């Protein structure tokens, strides 16, 4: 794209910029003029570039002082914003940036700050820590940016933000971006900003017009099956699945793993290094599916997310807008699917009223439809392989197979190897839920919870009692353990199926899992003397968790 600063133009072109978004067009000229600006825009509209371009052009790179501070609500967003600034400023000589946030050794950040960066990106609490250490000095600040300001207030950073705003150079320029404008935001703008210009690109339709939004009436116990069927039909590359609680994130992740999906999770209980590693893998496409809570995924800018699934209807209508904003970003097309149980109907209506969006009711595809799509994909893959003609090395082997076997049996066997490994119980039938009063699921008996009767889900989620036993092992993240590795380790050691290994929790130095009480003696015997990556493990019954 054309831009007056040729160093920045080169990086923007490499990043795929063609035209500025509406929020960028309206705010960049004002920020360049030195105006205080309030940008009111939903996620996914390019706010980072809107403040980064003027900052890069307004900094004196011969001056070793800190000249810009960008405050973000979460560690993940701080890392992401720094990365974006570095990309845009890739060809700007002498540019130095540092991200400061909790969850990382402060010594690493101290070393970075001693290299005299011009731009600091950080969370409010850790920024104040460095201010108190005299490592971040505010007297030469030219730009102070509050990114996702509404979320920072929700997370309890109001006092920290006001401390930083009050102590910073009073001649600075202040820029704020926020998806919503609650009263607390307006109070800050009146107190700490100079005649700010309010730019809003929130239209009557709060949700992105580039996102096709659908909802599905489905029983809680059939939601994971619904995820699998929809992903097969739509063949998405990157999918974000949102749950309302950390516990549900753990549960859904493990159940998707048991169905053979390439999936991982992020939520607030995971160590910061783990969260950043998972996000990096998802960003690079190493993972296909990321399961997350609202807070952990807030403000993430991961390109090429094609599908967002609301496994749970969000607790607040505005969360819905933030969630689906992870797809359909800056002109790209996206899909959002929301699973609605009977108890969620009121929330769904609140979301429709708030977002003014068209959310169309659809049905979960049937097993027959899913199988037909899978077969079409297999035929296409095999046809492509034949056309590429890279199979000469296998022709002798193929001839040998065909001599002693029926050709159709050989092809059928090979096709079975293409199928996704699924160790969970198969669910057949129609899993769409009839929401009329007093109705029951229209699907077959087999389409109910794959773990059995209606009461079995409570048993699944419990951590103790006569029906289920929970086990503690002395291995964890520090030993290279992940949820998937742990599930495989337990399964291989005990011969339990993945669907029988439940409620997995992996911490820094230990891990838990649960299974039916009838397996207790066998599990204790088989796991008493085994090793994980050379480390001798010990197993014991876990103490009952306090709820």
Q: In oligomeric terms, what are we looking at?
A: single chain
What do the pLDDT scores average to? 83
Q: What is the distance, rounded to the nearest whole angstrom, between the alpha carbons of the first and last residues? A: 55 Å
| CATH topology descriptor of the largest domain | Rossmann fold
| CATH-scheme architecture of the largest domain | 3-Layer(aba) Sandwich
Counting H and I runs of at least 4 residues, what is the number of helices?
21
Q: Determine Rg (CA atoms, Å).
A: 26 Å
CATH superfamily of the largest domain, please? P-loop containing nucleotide triphosphate hydrolases
User: Structural class, please?
Assistant: alpha/beta
Describe the fold and architecture.
This protein has 547 residues and is an alpha/beta fold. It folds into 3 domains: 6-200, Rossmann fold (3-Layer(aba) Sandwich), CATH 3.40.50; 205-449, P-loop containing nucleotide triphosphate hydrolases (Rossmann fold, 3-Layer(aba) Sandwich), CATH 3.40.50.300; 462-541, Alpha-Beta Plaits, CATH 3.30.70. 40% of the residues lie in helices and 16% in strands. The protein has 21 helices and 20 strands. The chain has a 7-stranded parallel sheet, with helices on both faces. A hairpin with a 2-residue loop joins strand 18 (531-532) and strand 19 (535-536). Helix 6 crosses helix 8 (158-167) and helix 14 (317-324) packs across helix 15 (345-355). The protein is globular, with a radius of gyration of 26 Å. It starts with 5 loop residues before the first helix and ends in a 6-residue tail after the last strand. 40% of the residues are buried.
């Amino acid at each position: 794209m054309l831009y007056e600063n040729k160093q920045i133009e080169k990086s923007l072109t490499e990043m795929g910029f063609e035209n500025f978004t509406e929020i960028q067009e309206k705010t960049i000229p004002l920020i360049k003029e030195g105006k205080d600006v309030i940008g009111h825009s939903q996620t996914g509209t390019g706010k980072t570039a809107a403040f980064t371009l003027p900052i890069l052009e307004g900094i004196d790179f011969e001056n070793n002082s800190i000249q810009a501070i960008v405050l973000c609500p979460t560690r993940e967003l701080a890392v992401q914003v720094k990365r974006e600034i570095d990309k845009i400023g890739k060809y700007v000589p002498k540019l130095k940036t540092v991200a400061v946030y909790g969850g990382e050794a402060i010594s690493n950040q101290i070393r970075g700050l001693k290299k005299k960066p011009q731009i600091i990106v950080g969370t409010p609490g850790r920024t104040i820590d460095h201010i108190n250490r005299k490592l971040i000095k505010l007297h030469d600040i030219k730009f102070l940016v509050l990114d996702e300001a509404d979320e920072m207030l929700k997370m309890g950073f109001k006092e920290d933000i006001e401390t930083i705003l009050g102590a910073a150079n009073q001649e600075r320029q202040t820029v704020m971006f926020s998806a919503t404008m609650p009263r607390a935001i307006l109070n800050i703008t009146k107190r700490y900003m100079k005649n700010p210009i309010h730019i809003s690109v929130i239209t009557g339709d709060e949700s992105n017009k580039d996102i096709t939004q659908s909802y599905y009436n489905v029983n809680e116990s059939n939601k994971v099956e619904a995820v699998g069927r929809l992903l097969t039909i739509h063949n998405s590359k990157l999918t974000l699945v949102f749950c309302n609680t950390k516990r549900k994130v753990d549960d859904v992740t493990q159940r998707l793993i048991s169905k053979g999906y390439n999936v991982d999770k992020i939520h607030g209980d995971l160590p910061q290094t783990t969260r950043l590693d998972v996000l990096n893998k998802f960003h690079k496409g190493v993972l296909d599916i990321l399961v997350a809570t609202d807070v952990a995924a807030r403000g993430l800018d991961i390109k090429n997310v094609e599908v967002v699934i609301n496994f749970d209807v969000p607790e607040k209508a505005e969360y819905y807008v933030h969630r689906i904003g992870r797809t359909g970003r800056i002109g790209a097309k996206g899909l959002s699917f929301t699973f609605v149980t009977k108890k969620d109907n009121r929330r769904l209506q609140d979301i429709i009223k708030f977002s003014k969006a068209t959310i169309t009711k659809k049905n979960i595809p049937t097993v027959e439809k899913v199988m037909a799509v899978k077969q079409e994909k297999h035929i296409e893959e095999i046809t492509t392989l034949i056309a590429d003609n890279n199979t000469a090395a296998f022709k002798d082997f193929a001839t040998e197979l065909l001599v002693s076997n029926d050709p159709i049996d050989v092809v059928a066997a090979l096709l079975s190897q293409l199928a996704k490994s699924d160790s969970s119980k198969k669910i057949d039938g129609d899993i769409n839920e009839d929401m009329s009063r007093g109705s029951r699921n229209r699907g077959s008996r087999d389409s109910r919870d794959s773990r059995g009767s209606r009461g079995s889900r409570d048993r699944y989620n419990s951590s103790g009692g006569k029906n289920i036993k929970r086990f503690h092992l002395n291995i964890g993240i520090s030993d290279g353990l992940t949820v998937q590795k742990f599930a495989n380790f337990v399964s291989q050691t005990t011969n339990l199926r993945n669907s029988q290994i439940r409620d997995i929790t992996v911490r820094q130095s230990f891990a838990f899992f649960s299974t039916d009480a009838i397996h207790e003696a066998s599990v204790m015997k088989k796991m008493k003397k085994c090793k994980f990556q050379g480390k001798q493990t010990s197993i014991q019954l876990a103490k009952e968790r306090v709820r």
